[in-house]
Amino acid sequence: MPPLLPKKKPSSSCINFLIDMPLSPKIAVWLTQQGHNALHASQCELARASDATIMQQARRERRILITADLDFPRLFALTHAEDPGLILLRGGNYTEAETSALVHRVLQTIPLSELTRSLVVIDHTRIRKIALPF
After folding, report:
1. What's the rounded Cα separation, in Å, for the pair 6 and 120?
2. What does the pLDDT look like over 46-56, one tens digit per residue?
3. Domain range for residue 75?
4. Domains in the chain, number
5. Burial letters for 61-77: b for 16+ Cβ neighbours within 10 Å, e otherwise?
């Protein structure tokens, strides 16, 4: 397995994340190493939870949700959700290294003030940001 991006010293721009079940728990580990507060759904008894429950937990804890589950944008739209932010990886299976690199690009290009109130759609060729609610 290729290595994830290198560790970074913690910074004052700590972001809270909840990583959904379709993605590896190692993404939460990597984000924590980058100085963020990240939990994988399996760490907080959400392994078999509904998407609505996961979304409610992310909202309660003010965590940006990172997922590959295509049902979340529909759930956000149906509930007119303004938060939490959502980062959606679509377009196939991504390795842990690809996922961490793509999330790193998002964190480098989208300000936190926008990230917490946006749907960010990532695929192999581009990153799109849509303001919530939509």
Report:
1. 23
2. 999 999 999 99
3. 16-131
4. 1
5. eebbbbbbbeebbebbe
